[in-house]
Amino acid sequence: MKVYLWAARNNQHERNFLSDLQHKIAKLGYETILAVADYSAADLENLLNADIVVAIFDGRDLAPADYVRLGIFYNYKHQQAKTKLLVGYSLVKADVDVKLFLDHLAKTELNLIACLKDYLYLKNKHHVG
Fold first, then answer.
1. What are the residues whose beta carbons fall under 8 Å from the beta carbon of 42, sequence distance 6 or more?
2. DSSP reduced 3-state for 66
3. Model confidence pLDDT, tens digit, residues 57-111
4. Distance CA 73, CA 79 (A)
5. 3-class DSSP state for residue 32?
6. What kind and span of H or E run contains 29?
7. Lower Cβ count inside 10 Å, N or C end of the chain?
8. What share of the chain is helix, strand, coil (3-state, %, to 5)?
9. Can you give the CATH number for the domain in which 11 is found?
10. Which string of b and e fits 56-94 if b means at least 16 CB within 10 Å?
């Protein structure tokens, strides 16, 4: 099962944070795919092939390409792949302006990991997908 991670990685701190999170998600049995900045055809294919999209919100405004990614996955999920999951992980206390489009908004790493564990358990239990 694949998790598409969409997050900023503009400096070493952000890259370290993302690497640590990737490692924790991989320990659950998921393959992680990082979003690329250039929004290429390969990135779009990775987005649509993911079982779960985790969007990390750090308080910065979303770029237009981020809204496009969100819209494409949201539409695909609701039209053809209802078992896919769109999860936000908010690193700030402020509300995320796109939370209406999310299946879940985690406000802690522990909550994010629990959400991914639950999805894996339920998908395997019910052989969905």
1. 36
2. helix
3. 888 888 888 888 888 898 998 888 788 999 999 988 766 677 788 999 999 999 9
4. 10
5. strand
6. none
7. C
8. 50, 20, 35
9. 3.40.50.2300
10. bbeeeebeeebeebbeebbeebeeeeeebbbbbbbeeee
Q: What values do phi and psi take at 103, rounded to 5? A: -80, -30
One-letter amino acid of 112: L
Q: Domain residues for 101?
A: 2-126
Reduce the DSSP state of residue 125 to 3 states and report it. helix
Lowest mean pLDDT among 18-22, 38-42, 48-52: 38-42
CB-based contact 13:19 (threshold 8 Å): no
Contacts with 2 (C-beta within 8 Å, 6 or more apart), sequence order:
30, 31, 32, 33, 46, 49, 50, 51, 52
